[in-house]
Amino acid sequence: MGIGLHGGGVGVIKFLAEQGAKILATDLRKKEDLTGSLEALSGINNIEYVLGEHRLEDFTNTDLVIKNPGVPDDSKYLAAAREKEIPIESDIGIFLELCPAPIIAVTGTKGKSTTAALLAHILEQHYPQVILAGNIRRSVLEKLPEITKDTIVVLELSSWQLADAKNHKKSPYVAVVTNLMQDHLNRYASFQDYIEDKKLIFKFQKEKDYLFLNYGDEISRELSKQATSRIYFYSTDGDKLLHAELPFLNQKARTGAYIKKKTIYYGAAQELIAPAKDVKIIGKHNLANALAAVSVADLYNVPREKTKEALRTFRGLEGRLQFIDKIADVKYINDTTATAPDAAIAALETIAKEYPRKDKQKHIVLIAGGADKNLDFTKFGQEISNHAKAVILLEGTATQKLAKEIGPDIKINGVNSMAEAVTLASQLAQPQDVVLLAPGCASFGLFQHEFDRGKQFDEAVKKLAEHE
Question: Which CATH architecture does the domain made up of 322-467 adopt?
C-alpha cells in the first residue's frame, strides 16, 4: 500500500517478489506520476498494479497488507483489513524480526539522516561490514541478504516507521535521539502523540542496551527518566554537562562526547577526541549530530585517529545545508530538508554565522514556504526578520500563514515555481550575499517530495551559472 517515489516501496516489492510472493501494489498516484518507481520494477513478475485509487476489496482478499510509512494509521482501507483480521505490516517491522545482527537506530525531528550517515562513515573506518539503511529513500529489506550476525547495522527511523513496527515490541540494541521538536502535526492529534511514537526507539530496550541523548534538548532529558537502558548524554556545552546532576533511577547516567573550549572530549575522564574544527559540516546543530556519532563510535571502540579522520572527510548529505555554487560572488545553499520551522531557523542562524558579510549587513535571500503541517510559524517569522534581507515564498497552504509572521521591513515576493524563485533570488542578491533554500514547510503541492524540490533548486542554479 503506497509504492511511493522514494524507493522504499520498490524495495519492499522486490524483496517480497524474491521470496516468491504474489503481490498487488496499489497507490493513489496515477501511472504517469510513478514512472521512476514502475521502471525500477519492470523486470519483476507476479505483480498486479492498482493505480490512481485504492479498492476496499484488495485489503480484505489478501494474506498480508504492507503499508508505506506515509499512510496514516486511521485509513479506512487499513480499518477494512483489521476487521477481517488481516495482519498489517511494515518493512521495518519485518526487518526487526529477520535481521540477524544487533541494530543501532537513530531518530529525532532533525539531524537523524546526518547523524546516521556520519556514524556509519566513522564505523566504516574500522569495521569491514557496516550497513546504513532505514529512512533513506530505500527499503531496509533490500539490504537484508547482505547482513550477517557480524554486520553493524545503522538504521535511520522516522516516527512513522517506529509506529508501524510497535506491535513487534522490539527496540534496537543502541538507540540515538537527536532532538524532539514540533513537526508532522498535520498527521498527529498532538505533539505528545508524536513524542510517544519517537519513544518507541527505546521503549522496549533491555537494561544492557544503550540510549544516547542530546543533553541540550530539554524533552530528551525528561524522557531519559522513562528509559530502562544505559543512558549516555552528549552535549555542545561541555561545562553544563560535566556539572550536571545526572541521576537516573538507581544508577548514574553517563557522559558521552561533548565540546569544551572548541575541542571534542569524551566521558567524565575528559578523553581528548579531536578539535571541533575537524567537523566539516556547518552549524551548531550539526556539531550536536557529530557528537552523537562520536559517542556511539566510542562504544564500538573505534580508534581515536580513525574517528578524527572520519570527521574530517564527511562532507554532509544532499539537501542539508549543501553548498551548490558560487555565482557572481553569491553563494547558493540547498537546505530543502528543512521541512519544519525549527529546522529552517537553524539554517538561517548557521548561514548568518558561517558566511557573514564584511559590512555586517543582512545578506540572506531566503526561499521558503510551501505546504502546511499545522505548525506554528511565529518564531520562524521573527528569525526571518532578524536574518533575511528578502524572502521569496513558494506557493502553498502554509505560505500566507508564514507571510503574516514576517516583519514589515522585509521584502516578500510570491512565486509558483522553483525556477522563478531562483531567478528572482539572483536579482535580489548582491555580492557576498547568500541565497538559501530553507522552506520550513512541506513540499507537496508544487513538488513530488522535498528531494524533488531540492533537485529543482540545484538545476535552476546550474542554469544561472551557464548564463554567467
Answer: Alpha-Beta Complex (3.90)
